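User: I'll paste a sequence; please echo it back and then give the predicted structure.

Assistant: Echoing your sequence first, then the prediction.
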Amino acid sequence: MAQTESAEKSGTRAEMREETERAILDAAEVVFAEAGFGGATMQAIADACGLPKANLHYYFASKEKLYRRVVERIFMIWLEAADSFDTEAEPEIALRRYIARKMLLSRDYRSGSKVWANEVMHGAPIIQDYLETTLQAWTETRVAVIRRWIAEGRIAAIDPKWLLYMIWATTQHYADFAHQVETLNRGPLTDAQWQDATETVCGIVLRGIGLDPGAPR
């Protein structure tokens, strides 16, 4: 009985810790997105998540360690989306899924996208290792797939890297420049507008590499 109660208390504490860490990371993501790494302070993050600063330091000893965790979480979400680029699927299906997932990330993880963009624009001082290893490896595998499609005559001959960069830039624009998009749209995009934007991006990309997005599959 005592062991059961002890296990339950331990489980509860672990759940509470996990919930608190998630709240801290959510708040830190917004603060870093708005102020950048240099402008963000641990006090501002503590205020944003409703914790005393001392409690924040209990979970994350420094701003650098907290920032690293925020970026790591963003990167893992990005990798999950990247897996939607199925290397075994038909070109249109693979690219449609990938573009749609990237657009969804821009809608649901706006602050995270901004943190990532700010980090890269400042020379990636914290995540350079991710760029040189995990991202490089993922990119090389997809470049190889796109080159295979070209060799098989399934898409137009283009440089695979330029295609990937264009997809990243276009989809992430909806997060990184969300204020501009919403200002010109006179308000946040509706679900129907997000769908239309996604279909527009897919159509332009697919037609640009010689596919007919309207053809029967």
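The chain has ten helices and no strands. The chain has two domains: 2-61, 71-208.
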